[in-house]
Design brief:
The complex is a heterodimer of chains A (265) and B (307). By secondary structure, chain A is mostly helical. Chain A contains ten helices and no strands. In chain A, helix 1 crosses helix 10, helix 3 runs parallel beside helix 6 and helix 8 packs antiparallel against helix 10. The two termini of chain A are 21 Å apart. Chain B is flat. The chains are: A mainly alpha (265), B mainly alpha (307). At the A-B interface, helix 4, helix 5, helix 8, helix 9 and helix 10 of A face helix 1, helix 6, helix 7, helix 10 and helix 12 of B.
Amino acid sequence: MMLRWGAGIVLTMLLVSGLAPWLATQDPQVMNLQSQYAPPSADHWFGLDENGSDVFSKVIYGGRVSLLVALSVVFCSAGVGLLLGSLAGYSGGVVDRVVMRLTDIVYAFPGFLLALALVAMLGPALSHLILAMCLTGWASFARLIRGEVLHLKESEYIQAARALGALPHIIVVKHIWPNLLGVLLVQMTLGIAGAIVTESGLSFLGLGVPPTTPSWGSLLNSGRHFLMEAPHISLFPGLAIVLLVFGFNLLGESMRARVTHSRDL
Amino acid sequence: MFGFILNRLVSLIPILFVVVTVVFFLIHIVPGNPVDIMLGDNATALNRQALEAQLGLDKPLGQQYMDYLLGLVQGDLGQSIYKQQSVVKMIIRSFPATLELTLGSLFLSILIGLPLGVLSAIKSHEKLDHVFSGLSMLGMSLPAYFLGPLLIWIFALSLDLFPVSERGGIGHLILPSLSLAIPLGSVLLRMVRASVMEVKSQDYIRTARSKGLSWKGMYFKHALKNAMIPILTTVGLQLGALLTGTVITETIFDWPGIGTLLFNSIQQRDYPLIQGCILFVAVVYVLVNFITDIAYSYFNPKVRITG
């Protein structure tokens, strides 16, 4: 049930973001200067913002930005984490100690703060944002993967492969990685939820995407100065964030329940 | 235990070293010349030279780094460009407000998470448990920058129950704390439920139950006591997350803490102040996690052997 709801929300939001140019009722940059702050109506489903731009169109375009950043960050972090975690877990010894010490250091660093600092210094841009979030994001993946590899390394089928003379990198890629897919997907799904929260938070502070790009965070921030007159400017992008994050959390948690359950059997 | 703490203290050194070094390099990754950005186009060459000298940017990089480390040891983080005040003094002045907000949020999130988590475990797989499970999942997905404006709109502007912003009495503390406490309390609720459920199925609990222990005694005397270890860890890790989360919440509520100080310093491109705030929050974050780690191993001796 939870899995289906989570997957449904996520797929719908992915679809809406993908089809944004066709679904948008108006170019999000267009300003209707006669009717700023207009409340939701048949023409403008989510109303107009302080510049008279269509909030609905801005929200669905903003979803693309959030998803683009979150997916890039998670794929990049998971890739680096998978490589380093496998290397550490399978090699053991000095390599393991070096990689894990590095992971510990990165893990101890507050990720949100580092991303904030880097974007504050480099200036807001999609690439800066993604880079800054990846710099700390990989550590949790590396830890998880290392633990899993250490566990799998002792299993009989890996020992058999080793006894048959299979090369270490073949064992890791062909025999260990397929078995990591479940935990990796769970962590990635929950990671996307976290990345969306971070991205929107930084954009809310004006330290995420550039000001001209429509994003949920910056829309939410500009709307909060007009809460009394036009609460819809903040409300709809906020609800979009909550829905998408909730969807990914729901999907991730229900996948986790299945993965751990099937392992316990 | 002493050996363990010593071991952990030693591993703290490279972490703090990296934090300090990263913060040092922040001003050097600014594209172009930071002095030009700070002074704008109207600055004279003389002004530029003066500011460059004040920031020490005219010296070789190695010398700058040594000066920075030396200053740090003496508790000197330089001068704010705009206010011409000591960065350390400005941070010390702002910290009580941030601490108040952090502790207020932590208190509220425990108030939400602990009783509801235990209740959820008592009623496990019943209707109430499902409701809490759904609500906590939703609560986890509510970021403070949405909750903050939402709470202001409902409780401050529409119902006029609480002040909109700024620091003051307990009334001022409730909305900002709540905007941080709802997501964190939800995480805590799930953690508490899982921990109590785990303890509940242990053999010694079943033995105690079969010997006639009441369910109240079981939950509050045995289950909760043993569930405290993972709960404590979550609370400790949350404290770190709360601290960085206050940057957003403080700007929403005009709360005069480190978060607002940092946000304003970024707006004004006051680089020494930005560096000081980042360094301070990062070091406190690292130390809080360190203390959590020690507390965790104190309550769970198994970690001391393997860790």
